[in-house]
What does this fold into?
Amino acid sequence: MSSAADLETTLLGPVLPGRECGDCTACCSVLTVDTPEFSKPAGVACVHVTDAGCAIHAVRPTICRTWFCGWRRVAALPDAARPDRSGLLVSLNFVRQPQNCFEGVSINIRLMPGSDAITNGMAGRVLDALCDGLVPVWFSDGARKMLMHPDREVAALVLSGAPAPAALRGEVAGWRERYGMFG
It folds into this structure.
């Protein structure tokens, strides 16, 4: 892969036609941005975001021009999963110093403050759409981060190297093949 953008396209798919940000500016406040060109902490609105969107859209930083949330890339996510509608922000995460193989490159679903996505079922629909491949999926409610895919038993077997029971052998082998080098 030549860049993080290429990896995002490989794992999540290309930006989908018709999936525009519109009035959504969730990424402008929810995410941490830490690049030489621009930085801001998570949970703090960007100084350039206004009620009408980005005040510097035409000359916005590279990170803002090249980053797209998962809703814009994953066709299996319903239209109602757009972050400002669902209260969930889906992204591909890159952790510089992961604690285990499931943290290095993974899908992260962030529950935004005030969201009712758990009680209204949207979080379940988003998880169902994302937990079907060999890409780890984490869910964060702001206080804690939980590995949702693979499930706890499969993750423990992958990390420990212990023999898998027959019913899980294929799944565990798939994860080990993909992530074993990060062991």
In short: Helices lie at 4-12, 27-30, 62-66, 83-86, 122-130, 152-160, 169-179.
